[in-house]
């Protein structure tokens, strides 16, 4: 068994070095495709961070001062619910200081300066309002009314930022996803062609091996391992590129004024690690698919 494994890896490495030009082309194409895949996931998470406070059809957020009394909070709650034909009372959410702080940790993940100034004691609590009406002017007029209530710190409206951000998010996500899928198909094709060329170059050896009783799988395994290695190397290269891009973006965002919304677009390192592991798995899968197709189709000599 050990001898067979050693043979498979030895033949894989020999074939890998024999077709160096095609091998490099396949790895680079895989790396670029996987880099775009990883970028797509990071973009999705970044925009999700930016829009996290507007989920659930929330169109207005009433921020309550950290020193507001229970009576003032109750008054705000009653005032919001006093317009049942405009506000959906059942969907009205109140996030206390602890919940607001947990949300802030995600929103300001790229702005440690601002986050360090916030604590569960001084952070504003918030009412998340879902209007029934589709009239933006009516919603805006309500926001002006809520601003005058005692205990209210500020009122934010989704229309001020949601439309542009969501449109840009969909566009960028769609473009990068389509490009990455196209390049993944190209990568599979290049790996397939590389394995096909390797098998053609060794057709005499394969014929002799089959004549002396070697099974199809014994012949296929080294070629399939070669394709798997192509995909993994492409995945490793793309992980390096993704780390560089994310680090450059994070460092660039650090130069913005604290408290700006751009800081929400920073992706936490834990999520980046998960994306890298997924890219490695996708790279291995792409390589395995391309090499398996070639090894199965061109084995007959």
TrEMBL record:
Keywords, ordered alphabetically: Cell cycle, Cell division, Cell membrane, Membrane, Transmembrane, Transmembrane helix
Subcellular location, record wording: Cell membrane
Domain ABC3 transporter permease C-terminal: 178-289
Topology versus the membrane: Multi-pass membrane protein
TM stretches of this protein: 20-43, 171-195, 228-249, 269-295
Any one of the GO BP annotations: cell division
Residue stretches making up the FtsX extracellular domain: 58-155
GO cellular component entries: plasma membrane
Membership in a protein family: Belongs to the ABC-4 integral membrane protein family. FtsX subfamily.
Protein name, entry field: Cell division protein FtsX
């Amino acid at each position: 068994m050990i001898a067979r494994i050693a043979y498979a890896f030895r033949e894989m490495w020999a074939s890998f070095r024999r077709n160096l030009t095609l091998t490099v082309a396949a790895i680079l194409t895989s790396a670029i495709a996987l880099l775009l895949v990883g970028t797509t996931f990071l973009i999705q998470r970044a925009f999700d961070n930016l829009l996290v406070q507007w989920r659930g059809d929330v169109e207005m957020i009433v921020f309550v001062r950290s020193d507001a009394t229970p009576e003032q909070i109750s008054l705000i709650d009653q005032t919001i619910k006093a317009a049942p034909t405009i506000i959906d009372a059942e969907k009205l959410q109140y996030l206390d200081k602890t919940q607001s702080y947990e949300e802030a940790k995600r929103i300001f993940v790229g702005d440690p300066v601002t986050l360090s100034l916030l604590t569960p004691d001084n952070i504003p609590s918030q009412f998340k309002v879902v209007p029934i009406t589709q009239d933006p002017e009516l919603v805006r007029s309500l926001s002006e009314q809520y601003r005058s209530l005692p205990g209210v710190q500020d009122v934010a409206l989704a229309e001020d930022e949601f439309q542009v951000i969501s449109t840009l998010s969909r566009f960028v996500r769609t473009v990068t996803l389509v490009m990455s899928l196209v390049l993944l198909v190209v990568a599979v094709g290049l790996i397939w062609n590389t394995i096909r060329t390797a098998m053609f170059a060794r057709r005499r050896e394969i014929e002799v091996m089959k004549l002396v009783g070697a099974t199809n799988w014994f012949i296929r395994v080294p070629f399939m391992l070669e394709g798997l290695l192509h995909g993994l190397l492409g995945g490793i290269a793309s992980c390096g590129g993704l780390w560089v891009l994310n680090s450059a973006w994070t460092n660039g965002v650090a130069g913005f004024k604290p408290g700006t919304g751009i800081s929400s677009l920073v992706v936490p390192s834990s999520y980046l690690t998960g994306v890298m592991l997924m890219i490695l798995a996708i790279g291995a899968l792409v390589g395995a698919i391309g090499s398996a197709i070639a090894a199965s189709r061109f084995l007959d000599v």
